[in-house]
Amino acid sequence: MDGVPGLTQDPVQPGSSFEYRFQVPDAGTFWYHAHEQSWEQVARGLYGALIVDEEQVVLPPEQDISLVVDDWRLTSEGVLDTRSFGALSDWSHGGRMGNWLTVNGEPEKVFELQRGKWYRLRLINTCNARILALDPTRFRAQIIAYDGQTLAEPAEAPYAPLLLGPAQRMDLLFQAQDEFELEELSGPQPFPFVRFHVGGEANVATRRPEFVPADLPEPVLDDALQVRLEMAGGAMGKQVEMRYNGEVLEGEEVIEARQFWSFNGVANLAEAPLFTAQLGRSISLTIVNETAFPHAMHLHGHHFRVLSRSEASVDDGKPWRDTFLIGPSQTTHIAFVADNPGRWLLHCHMLEHAAAGMNTWFEVTA
Ligand SMILES: [Cu+2]
Fold first, then answer.
1. Ligand 1 center to 327 CA (angstroms)
2. Ligand 1 centre and the CA of 133: distance in Å?
3. Are 199 and 255 in contact (CB under 8 A)?
């Protein structure tokens, strides 16, 4: 059960309920959120962390901290700015950016840590559109997982700041030593948004925890289904003839339909899937961003490896991810095994972009 209205289920109507049943094959950091009118419902807070514990306890709960990070757009009175929901300038540009950053729903959140103990920080970016920039090297943290999949080995951050796009997760491991703040670095000034106090005696000898690496099937490129996805539209981007609900949109119709972006010339879900794959088939997907904006592309039901990115390196070990950032004019090549039967979305997780056209889907047949 994936909860995508129009693809796998009907929306849950006000006052009614729906019971989701699913298995959790992978221990790791995930989250859940409304997928109906998500650009408004998620911005209003309809989401939560979904943590799947390891079979063997690695860290006690007090040393395993989830940080759900969101930016809210507040008015000058300090209440949620609801008037600007659906603003065309957000939909056709970089999405809805907030002006108030919270962790687990609180501003200036403080955690109390014990000196010498090991901690896992599970960072989850639930912002509609903001790409968070963070520097974990400043408190000697190592990266142990991305998007809910544990790395083969804990890794030093290869560069700083690290970017955490909408929907992405990053698990960090560190030993508490001195008080520190986590700063968001994408603005003109570093913005401290969560503080960690450290108390207790130094030199508490505790063993460094170990984590079981992800165990996912490797795609076989020789045998892979080759798929290409061209992203176009938006302000200042390449404009192509755009189909929506089977019709070509022209002139004012683009604004009336509120569809500004397209995948392979189609805004929002086409009748036909982007591709259909037999269960177990490897998929080689090349995504070309011909827009003037970065995007956070999210694949449902699967994790992939980023094999190459034009004009940028890929991370050591090519970690498994379910969401990748793609820059303006960038081409990114990903690969994965279609090992999960069903119908799955592939969309930009900048929620205004998804609403305004950046959705496609694929099918894995058993
Ligand atoms: Cu986008």
1. 10
2. 17
3. no
Tell whether the model's pLDDT for residue 63 goes beyond 70: yes
Q: Report how many domains make up the chain.
A: 2
Cα 324 to averaged position of ligand 1 atoms, centre (Å): 11
Say yes or no: 133 and 231 in one domain.
no
Q: How many angstroms does the Cα of residue 347 sit away from the middle of ligand 1?
A: 8
Whole domain around residue 101: which residue ranges? Answer: 55-199
Q: Are 262 and 150 part of one and the same domain? A: no
Rounded to the nearest whole angstrom, what is the distance from the C-alpha of residue 350 to the centroid of ligand 1? 5
Q: Is residue 229 situated within a structural domain?
A: yes
* Average pLDDT value for the chain: 95
**Are 61 and 178 members of one domain?**
yes
95 CA from centroid of ligand 1 (Å): 8
Surrounding ion ligand 1 within 5 Å at CB are: 295, 348, 350, 353
- Ligand 1 centroid to Cα of residue 233, in Å, is 10
Mean pLDDT on 12-27: 96
194 and 227 both lie in a single domain? no
Asked if residue 22 is part of any domain, the answer here is no
Interatomic CA distance for residues 132 and 134, integer angstroms: 6
154: CA distance to ligand 1 center in Å? 30
Q: Outline where 194-286 has alpha helix (H).
A: 252-257
pLDDT band at 316 (very low <50, low <70, confident <90, very high): confident
Q: Are 350 and 297 in contact (CB under 8 A)?
A: no
Question: Is the pLDDT confidence value at 138 over 90?
Answer: no
